[in-house]
Amino acid sequence: MTQTFRRVLPVDDAGYYGKFGGAYIPEILNRSVEQLRDAFYRYASDSDFNLQYRQLLRDYVGRPSPLYRATRLSETYGTNIYLKREDLNHTGAHKINNAIGSVLLAKRMGKTRIIAETGAGQHGVATATVCALMNLECTVYMGATDIARQQPNVQRMEMLGAKVVAVHSGNKTLKDATNEAIRDWCCHPDSFYVIGSTVGPHPYPEMVAYFQSVISEEIKKQLIVMEGRENPDYVIACIGGGSNAAGAFYHFIDNKDVRLIAAEAAGKGADTDMTAATMCAGKEGIIHGARTMVMQTPDGQIIEPYSISAGLDYPGIGPLHAYLATSGRSEVIPVTDDEALNAAFNLTHTEGIIPALESAHALGVLDKKKFAPDDIVVVNLSGRGDKDMHTYMSCINNGFSTTN
Ligand SMILES: *Cc1c(COP(=O)(O)O)cnc(C)c1O
Prior knowledge:
Elements: E1 16-17, E2 20-21, H1 30-44, H2 47-61, E3 67-69, H3 71-77, E4 80-85, H4 95-108, E5 113-118, H5 122-134, E6 137-143, H6 144-149, H7 151-159, E7 163-167, H8 174-187, E8 192-194, H9 204-212, H10 214-227, E9 234-239, H11 243-249, E10 259-267, H12 278-281, E11 283-287, E12 290-294, H13 319-326, E13 330-336, H14 337-351, H15 357-364, E14 376-381, H16 389-397
Parallel strand pairs: 4-14, 5-6, 5-8, 6-7, 9-10, 9-14, 10-13
Antiparallel strand pairs: 1-2, 3-4, 11-12
Helix pairs in contact: 2-4, 4-5, 4-9, 5-7, 9-11, 10-11, 14-15
This protein binds pyridoxal-5'-phosphate (PLP).
């Protein structure tokens, strides 16, 4: 049985969110992107495909992920804080939601080879995992800087049978890995490129958001049971490319009573040259196939981004989020390395949960906003901190105070 795909996001048929988005691709990829678009809309409306996707989310990923009322954290901030526990998913982050959907789609399209890029390694691990499950060949591009700072994830990908290719261009992080993955795709247009965020040419931002939208779908159901209402007052998520935020915002975008807050990585400060705060420091441009906000020099050269968090170390932002922010629907708050580290140690001490460095940026917003005692605040805890232990330990060893 097939219904038609119900479009929820503010995007048109050409993939534009206001003036952002579109598909700026080399001609050699035209056919592949067109095939992907057709297959996505076809299978997103296919009940057999959705059934298989939902069953894997339940039995393999462990969904629904809990919505946890963080009692001690709520007391600290004098409000009601809920954590959406994407950290409890199989492989430790929200990335697996998209990897399952995208690789299932690749399988239906008859693809045999998968390409992916990865920053912190969470998307690479998720993709390698689903490729092992579905018996597909998998190549993951990763910047050499990130390979050094996220070793446990490199080892997991290799054990899962993926080929991890080190990228030595630029500052050897996510942007550079994405460039290499696109280059591979241009050489092998029959391969399926699994993008790890709501970036890239149309239909990727819409497709990845769709596969992540299960997050806000579950939040609504869980809040009804726990609070008697399905809409929180705030939803807070960190933004690299924007996929966990897109999933957490998705079913709330049309409800203006729900305030949407995106935390971007300010690095050493949004007004310094060591930052990844794209909405603060960026200007309109084109990156990886989409028109969006981009950190660039006056003559259009991409500025190398910086963040302590490998998953947020990206000079662009998904076109959906550029649109939500510039239209006033969302608020973007920059959170520095130190503010994120403070928030990470604070969550660990008050709730016994070690968050991913990326998710710690979302938690950092709690110190920057004033909430009312009866507000319901949902923070999307996008991933767990195992991969970041090395960074946390070196902060402690370098005298970072972990008790304020
Ligand atoms: C990859 C990653 C992010 C950033 O990516 P988005 O697409 O912006 O969600 C955030 N948190 C975790 C744990 C990640 O692995």
